Each structure stands twice: as structure tokens, then as C-alpha cells.
């Protein structure tokens, strides 16, 4: 079909319209599986851009050999390691030539039909963004837990993100398809360098641009959680307080991005999500840390929560996260940790890592 014959009433899915950007660093054990899962998406995928972030384990060579027999695969080798996920994703995004783009990490996979399902939803709804269900697969057990299943229970079209504030809870970029021109027109990119939770800021930038969003119940991403891995992913390594510092900074930036775009309700939702999810998750682990960590964590948390205003605390004031937050703000030193941990576990949440 040529461009002149296409009309807005044509609901057929255009072939070869999606680029998949795969990023990896020293992940020779898994990166080719990720790339193959992208190539196996079929005719919906025009190109796969694999960005190697200056690996030293032979990953780039594996990708080069795969590219030699797969014309849709382009391999980009970065000359210096960026320390994070944002920079290689931006590198891949710059190289994309397709109308739509998806992102995939080297240790995860796309299930069959993911790209086609998202592409059909985006085209059918004339949406700039399409999102679907991500499942967290625990390895080696294979146990799967859906991520933000409430958002993706049914097919839906959200004409403006403010119509569904719950969208701020799904901070992943990998279970979505984006119109490439939309991202470029609004200058939407990932934070550069070593910036854990880059997805949080990227998602806020996307929502701030007020895209029309299509949601589908299809499984479109499999997030592998390897608890026994020798090297945890950047965001899942929470053993040091710097991880919490990075998380609070990402949440702060997300709030500021949305507020600056005039999306006040979404900005409020970001703060509510921090209390309901992030704060509770870390409080549950706080008793496992040493005294120095607890003091530093407490100080960082008090500084972050001090920025909240009366309206942030007024919403659902008896919720566990808000009660925990008030205790932290009121006490200059860590206190009542067993009680706080019990409160944070009501109701029970998924066992970390997230």
C-alpha cells in the first residue's frame, strides 16, 4: 500500500512500522534471546536497533554475528559505558527510522504478538502511545506476577492522561509503543548517564505532553527477575542508600515535570503513588539495614516529604503510606520500625525486588 492510498478510515495494520530498541551491557548470556524475541515479532517490526553500552564480555560480537544473517538488525557500539539505561536508549532512539518505537532490555523478552497488538491499538485509536500488560517472571521458578494489572484489564482509549491518573503508577517504558514523531516533536528523552529509575522521569515527560493513549490487556512484555543473579539490575540493587536517593530524586523530577506542564492532578498522583508504593516498599526493608543506612534513609525521606503540602496529605489521610510519612516527618531519628513495617505491609504487597 502506498502513502496516497491510506486514509483515516483504513483500519488495517500497516506492516513493518515498529522499531525495537534493545539495550545491554555485559549481558552476553541473555542479549541474543532478547533480540531474537524482537525479531520474532514478525512483519510488524521493521528494524531492531541493538545498543551495546561498551560491554567487555563479548556481547557486541554476538550481536554482530546475529546481524550478519538478519538484515533488520542494526548494532550500535557505544565507545564508553554510560552507567545507566537512559543514554543507550537515547542512542537507539536517535537511530530509529520507523514510525513507532518500543524499548527492550537485554535480560527480558517480548512475547509473541506484542508489537502487533500494540501497533494495532495505536493505529486503531489514532493514539500516540499504546500500552499493554507486563508480567514479572521470577527465575528460575517461572512464577509470574502481572504488573499494574488494573490498568490493562480491558481495552481502553484514554483521550488525555488526566482522565486516568492511575497511569502514573505504571512507570515502565518497556511495555509501551510510542509514535516516534511524537517523542521527537516534544523532545522527550531519557535522563542521561547513571540515573536509576530513568523510566519514572521519561514516563512523566510522556504524560506531560498529553498523548492520546490506547490500553490493551495483551501480554506485551516479560520482565525477568533473577534474584540469584551475580549482578542485580541498577534499579533493583537497593542495598545502599544511594538507591533511595535516586528513587526520591526521580519521583521529585516526575512531579516537577508534570506540574510544570500544568498537569496538576497527575503531579498530585505522583506524590500519592510515592506514599502508597515507594515509601511502603522501602519501609518494609528498613529493619534489614544497618544503623547508618537507617539514619541516612530517614534524613533523605524527611527532606523529600517536607516538600509535600496540605493537599498531598489530605487525600486518604488514614492510608498506611500517609500514616508512615507523618511519623517520619514528626521524628528526627528513626523510630518504631517494627510498627512501621507492620503498617507498611497492610495490605500485603508483592515481595521485592520490584
Output the CATH class name of the largest domain. Alpha Beta
Give the averaged pLDDT, no decimals: 92
Give the helix proportion (percent range).
25-40%
Supply the CATH superfamily name of the largest domain.
Answer: Spore Coat Polysaccharide Biosynthesis Protein SpsA, Chain A
**What is the number of helices?**
12
Give a short summary of the structure.
The chain has helices spanning 31-39, 59-68, 86-95, 114-125, 180-185, 198-208, 241-260, 264-286, 291-305, 310-314, 320-330, 337-344, and strands spanning 18-24, 45-52, 73-77, 100-105, 129-139, 144-147, 156-158, 176-179, 213-226.
Outline the fold blueprint.
Layout: E1 18-24, H1 31-39, E2 45-52, H2 59-68, E3 73-77, H3 86-95, E4 100-105, H4 114-125, E5 129-139, E6 144-147, E7 156-158, E8 176-179, H5 180-185, H6 198-208, E9 213-226, H7 241-260, H8 264-286, H9 291-305, H10 310-314, H11 320-330, H12 337-344
Parallel strand pairs: 1-2, 1-4, 2-3, 5-9
Antiparallel strand pairs: 4-8, 5-6, 5-8, 7-9
Helix pairs in contact: 6-7, 7-8, 7-9, 8-11, 8-12
Structural account:
This protein is an alpha/beta fold and 354 residues long. The chain has 2 domains: 3-226, Spore Coat Polysaccharide Biosynthesis Protein SpsA, Chain A; 241-344. Helices cover 40% and strands 18% of the residues. The protein has 12 helices and 9 strands. It has helices at residues 31-39, 59-68, 86-95, 114-125, 180-185, 198-208, 241-260, 264-286, 291-305, 310-314, 320-330, 337-344, and strands at residues 18-24, 45-52, 73-77, 100-105, 129-139, 144-147, 156-158, 176-179, 213-226. Strands 1, 2, 3, 4, 5, 6, 7, 8 and 9 form a 9-stranded mixed β-sheet that branches. Helix 6 packs parallel to helix 7 (241-260), helix 7 (241-260) packs antiparallel against helix 8 (264-286) and helix 7 packs parallel to helix 9 (291-305). The relative contact order is 0.11. The model is unreliable at 1-11 and 349-354 (pLDDT under 50).
Amino acid at each position: 500500500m502506498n502513502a496516497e492510498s491510506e486514509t483515516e478510515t483504513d483500519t488495517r495494520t500497516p506492516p513493518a512500522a515498529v522499531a525495537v530498541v534493545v539495550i545491554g551491557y555485559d549481558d552476553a548470556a541473555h542479549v541474543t534471546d532478547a533480540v531474537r524475541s524482537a525479531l520474532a515479532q514478525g512483519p510488524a517490526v521493521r528494524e531492531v536497533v541493538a545498543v551495546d553500552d561498551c560491554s567487555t564480555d563479548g556481547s557486541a560480537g554476538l550481536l554482530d554475528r546475529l546481524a550478519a544473517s538478519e538484515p533488520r538488525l542494526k548494532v550500535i557500539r557505544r565507545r564508553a559505558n554510560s552507567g545507566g539505561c537512559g543514554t543507550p536508549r537515547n542512542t537507539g532512539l536517535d537511530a530509529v527510522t520507523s514510525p513507532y518505537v518500543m524499548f527492550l532490555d537485554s535480560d527480558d523478552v517480548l512475547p509473541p504478538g506484542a508489537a502487533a497488538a500494540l501497533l494495532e491499538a495505536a493505529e486503531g485509536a489514532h493514539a500516540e502511545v499504546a500500552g499493554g500488560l507486563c508480567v514479572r517472571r521470577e527465575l528460575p521458578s517461572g512464577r509470574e506476577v502481572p504488573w499494574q494489572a488494573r490498568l490493562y484489564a480491558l481495552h481502553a482509549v484514554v483521550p488525555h492522561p488526566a482522565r486516568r491518573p492511575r497511569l502514573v503508577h505504571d512507570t515502565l517504558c518497556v511495555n509501551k509503543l510510542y509514535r516516534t514523531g511524537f517523542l521527537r516533536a516534544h523532545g522527550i528523552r531519557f535522563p542521561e548517564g547513571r540515573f536509576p529509575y530513568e523510566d519514572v522521569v521519561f514516563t512523566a515527560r510522556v504524560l506531560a505532553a498529553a498523548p492520546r493513549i490506547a490500553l490493551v490487556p495483551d501480554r506485551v512484555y516479560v520482565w525477568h527477575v533473577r534474584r540469584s543473579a551475580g549482578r542485580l539490575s541498577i534499579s533493583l540493587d537497593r542495598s545502599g542508600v544511594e538507591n533511595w536517593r535516586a528513587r526520591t530524586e526521580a519521583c521529585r523530577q516526575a512531579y516537577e515535570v508534570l506540574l510544570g506542564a500544568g498537569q496538576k492532578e497527575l503531579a498530585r498522583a505522583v506524590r500519592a503513588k510515592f506514599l502508597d508504593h515507594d515509601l511502603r516498599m522501602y519501609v518494609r526493608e528498613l529493619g534489614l539495614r544497618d544503623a547508618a543506612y537507617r539514619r541516612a534513609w530517614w534524613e533523605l525521606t524527611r527532606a523529600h516529604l517536607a516538600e509535600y503540602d496540605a493537599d498531598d496529605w489530605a487525600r486518604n489521610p488514614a492510608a498506611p503510606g500517609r500514616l508512615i510519612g507523618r511519623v517520619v516527618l514528626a521524628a528526627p531519628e528513626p523510630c518504631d520500625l517494627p510498627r512501621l513495617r507492620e503498617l507498611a505491609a497492610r495490605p500485603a504487597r508483592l515481595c521485592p525486588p520490584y
